[in-house]
Structures are given as structure tokens and as C-alpha cells.
Amino acid sequence: MSGRDLVRSWWSVGVAGAAQGLRTVRAAWRRRGGDATGPGPRVRARVPGAVREVEPGPGGGVIRFARSELRILVAVNGAVFWGWDGAGPEPSFALAGACPEPDPRAELEPDTDGGWRVVAERVTVAVSRHGALEVLTPGGVMLRRDLPPRWWEAEDGGPARWMQRSEVPADARFFGPGGRVEGPRPWDGSHRPGNGVTGTGGAVPVTVPVQLVVADAGTHLLFVDNPWDGTLTLREGVEGAGSGHDRVGTGELRMEGGPVRGWVMAGTPARVLLTWASLTGAPTLPPAWAFGHHLVREGVGGEDEVRRVVAGHLERGLPLDAVHLGAGHLEGGRAFTVDQDRFPKLAVLADELRREGIRLVSAVRAEDRRGEGTCPDVADARVRYAGQAARGFAGVWHTVDGSVPLGRGNALCLARAAHEGLRDEVPADERPLVLSASGWAGSQRYGGVWSGEGAVGWPGLRTSLAQVVGLGLCGVPFSGPDVAGGGEGEASELYVRRLQLTAYLPLLRTGAVGPAGGGPWEYGAVVLGHARVALGERRRLLPYFVTLAHLARRTGAPMVRPVWWPAPEERELRDCEDVFLLGDALLVAPVLEPGAVRREVRLPRGRWYDTATGRAYEGPAKVLVDAPLERIPVFARAGAVLPVRGEDGGTELEVWAPAPGRSGGGLVVPDGGDGGEEPEAERYLVTRSGPRVVVRRETEDGAREPSRPVRVRGLDGAGGQM
User: Fold this and answer.
1) Residue spans with biased composition (Basic and acidic residues) (predicted)?
2) What does pTM read for this prediction?
3) How many CB atoms are closer than 10 A to CB 645?
4) What would the pLDDT profile of 229-268 be if each residue is shown by its tens digit?
């Protein structure tokens, strides 16, 4: 069909039939495209059909429809599994072990209008007679509704493409998935949930296809356990004003193949992430030094270059805890093969750095030579990674060719091999560090995620923050971007603001600055001073980061949290994306715009102290605070107890005074060395009576005086020694 034919097809219907004419033109274009490319394979569409029979079983059962079947399982941890066409929860890369045991109290029973339901402690799962699946609160309020899936099967065989549409309440907000979006909320539009394409806009190719949905009715997490590529299209709902009708939020998932299966878990955000961790595995505990300052060097200049840059940091009073050697230290870029000409005595270099309290980390260029759904030889890979430990490396970070990202299962298996291989060879009292750029649900069992330099320019600050928050909500608490330098002028301001932000994120890595490849001193004395303050504050907070890491391992709670985390029912906080919580004690408000020296901060309920001035603010409120180039606004929650590094290197307690007549408290988990048993959490209670603040440690034998030094802040706007 020519363009003239297309015009005739439009005018032939007349003005009154404009809508029909538009559909005619679109159909003509599709036929024209088909004529140009030749006929494709014939496909047949399929839907489940009506219910035929039901087979109850432990925790749920199987519902058979005319053309498919649905398996429902409510596990003892409260998670709900659903799988179509005979898909079961195993095998799965995501699961930490075997599928959890079914909840013996949950049974499949008849529902209204020919449907069926499973009533559990935290949710009710209702299935209509045509296969629509609803997840409801115990009170019967809908959390989500998944319509029956639709398959397109090629008559000549091959994988079946499939699609499923979903609905959520009008007030619901979507968060996630993983680190593939430019905000913690995947704004309306289409997203790629798979690792089949490289990240854009600085997004890391880490695939955790998780939707965390927050609504007035409650919070729930959806995980679609399918590693194939596809498209996820989300549309947030709109509540009707006055007598207007609500428009529900919608999702449409189209997959190129693979099983139609997933998990749903509901409750408070903390309960949801705890259930997710029990399903896919507790996050591994990084070594304590991993929460310090990491310096990334390509290693092109060899051992002398590494010594020069390390000395430059130490001479200028810049804390340094690890040096990462990039692919430049490898011979020909080959994994595990060190360039002996430039690094002839790597073990000696590692030992020198360790005496300064600095660990050496090796880049490993991971290549994906396996098919999707298969793993590399983990046993062989463990031997290779063990060899890295023998060279003196305390950890590895996987770099990949961005045009060929690792398959989901392969990336997870390599992370596992690295973790186990290093663990076998490092000293018994140490833990290895594993960082990956690709991954899948469950990767947190073996290590963290690094996202490179992320998106460039000032928009990259928001993207970097969004990636860390999004990954935390998907069960990966240890992640962070790189801080790299650029040219002069605005670049120095951007460098400072990026460093100040990253100083409060779990992983802090900096790169070369300026043509000389040095550190922040390349920008001059002013920037050097600001960098020294940011890195010094990071070192002071190391005990707090270690505590948060231990709590993440035990509870699944992210270290970096959206500001709505403790109060998801507060709608205004759901849309707040430019501040975040570090644990439950600190609120961080990074500067995300050039030239800004003040910024507006939304504070949640309660009393908050500006940590720089000691001034108290009462939330909920929007406050305008100073944000000079030398610092970003950070607020402490009244009554909080933070473990911090004292001047003598020991741990002391920084206590922020509760409001008069109120109390507070906090947990401290000391790191008793990298090996051995999990340390016991110390619980502290803080009370205030007039101007006096009392801190007690709660033990099985009752409350007693803290054995650590205590510094009370927030009294009359000034700190004081207790």
C-alpha cells in the first residue's frame, strides 16, 4: 500500500467516521509492515478459561481452568506464591534454599460467584472463576488485583510470550524495581525489568523485578520470578475529587517467555522486607572496613602509582580504608591474570597497605559465556577467586562489558563463587567483600552492588540516590555510586556535593580527580577542606553504619530508607524523593541543584535536630535551612542513640535529647571482629526529666549505666558531656 492509498483510506470514511478511519490507517500500516518483512510465525492466543476442578493442598492448592491451572501456596512466613501452567516455586535462583513450608492453617475454600479463596493470617487470596487473583487485607480491603494472564503461543513451538495486567488502589504508589530507574518511584511509563539491555541514564544493570506498592490499605511487595526480558508499564491512579470516580493504578507486564509465577507479601514495610529476606536470603555482612572510604585506581601506572596516590591521601589527612585496582592491573584485561610487569610484587603491596589499615580489592572482568538459565562452574570459579585472596586481595568487584551484561543467574552464581572462594582463603577472623554490577534477586546473599559513576551532571545526583533507595527496598542494602572528578568551575562544586551525598550512603568509592589523577586536592585548598570534612564525618559514623549492616542482616531492613518508611500512611511523605533516612536516627537532605546554599526540607512527625546547629524543629513541617558548600543538612531524631567513633578510636554514644516528658532509645551492634559469632545487640533507653537526660542500657539483669562514653546533644542548642 502506498501513501496515496493510506490517504484514500482516511477520507473514504468521512469526517463522521474519523475514529474508525484512524483505526483503518493503523491497520493498513501494520499490513504494510508485514508485507515488507514477510509473514511471521502464526500464533494462537490463550486465556485460562473457566474453573473446572479444584485440588486443595497444604497452604492452598491447585485450581484447574479450561486451558490452564493456577497453583496457590501460602508459606509459613506469610509469603504467597502463585504459578500458572504448572509453574512451581522451584527451581529458582532467587530462593535462598528450598521453598518455605506451607502454612497448615491456610486452606483453599469456596468463595462467592464460583470463585475460591485462601484465608491466611496476614492476607486473603481470592481467585475468581475466570482466574483473576486478588490479594486483600484481613479486613477485606484490596491490595492488588491481577487479571488472568494471556499467552501467545507459536504453532511451530518455542517459548510462549505472555502478558498480565494488574490493578492497585487509586492512592497507591509504586516503588522499585531494583536499580534500573532514575527515581525510587518508577514514574508512569514503561520500564525494562530484565538484564537483557544495558542501563540508561546511569542506571545499573541489576535486575530485581520487585514492585513495592504503598497505599492507605497497607504495603505489599510483588516479585515476578522470571528472568526473561520484557516490559513493565505502570500508571499510578488518581483519586476522584468530590463526587468523581477514582481511577485505579494499573500495571501491565509483557514477557518474552518463561514461567508465569511470582510471590506476594504484605504488611508494614518492615514486615514485608523481613519476609522478603526470609524468602531470598539474609543480606551478607560486609567487613567493617567496607563502610569506609574506597579509592578506585585503574592501576595503569603500576605499584608506584598506587603508593603515590595513597600517600597523597594520608599526607593530607584524608581517611582511606581500601584501594580498588581496576581492569588496568590485569594482563590484557583477562580475569584473574595480573600484569607482572607493572605489579611484580602484588602481595608485598597488599601487605604494606594493610599495615596502614588499607585493604586491596581486585577488579574481575566477568564474561558471560553461558546460556540463560545455566550457571558457570561454581567449583572452578571458587578456586580462581581463592587465588585472588592468596595474592593479598581482601575482596573483588565484578566489572562487565556494558554492551553484554551478565545473565541474571550467571551473575548471581559468580557472586556466590567469589564469596565462597574468598571466604575459604582469607584469615578466619575476616569477611570478604564482593561487589557486582549485575545481579538477580538473591544476590544480596553474597555481596553488594556498585553502580559506577552513574548518570552525569547534576541530574546524576538524584539518580544515584534513587538507585540506592530502590535497591534497598528490593533487599540489597549495601550499594552506592562512584564519586569521580571532572574539569574546573562547576565540576568542583558538583564533586563536593556528590561526595557529601555519598558519605551518607552504604558504599563510598571515589576515583581519580584532574589530569594528574590525584585526589580532591586537585581542585584546590577549599575543595580539599570540604572533602576532609565529609570523609571525616563518614569515619566518625562508621560504628553506626556497622550497626545498620548487622540489623539489615537480621531484619532485611534497608540501611538507606525512604522518608515514609516508618509512616507509610502519611501520603505527603510518599512523594518526597529528595531526602532520605539513614537508619531510623538520621535524616539526610543532600543538595541536588547547582549554586544552592539553602534548601527546603520536609520533616516527618516528631522533633528533629539540625546536627550542625543543634536547633530543634517540630514535624511534620517544611523548613528552610542553610546548606553552604561545606556541608549538607543532616537532622537527628530526638531521643536517638548513635554509636560513633570517638577521638581515641573507640566507640562512644551520641544521644540526642528527647523532647521534654518524652523518651527514646536505640540499638548498637558492635562489630566484634570479622569472624566468629554474631555479636549481641546493645539496647539503650533514653529518658528526659527537665534539663536532665538519663541513658541506661537494658540487659536481662535490668537497666544499668552504659559502659561506653556518652555525649548528649540537643540541650539548649549545645552539646554537653554526660
Assistant:
1) 696-708
2) 0.90
3) 17
4) 889 999 999 888 766 788 999 999 999 999 999 999 999 9
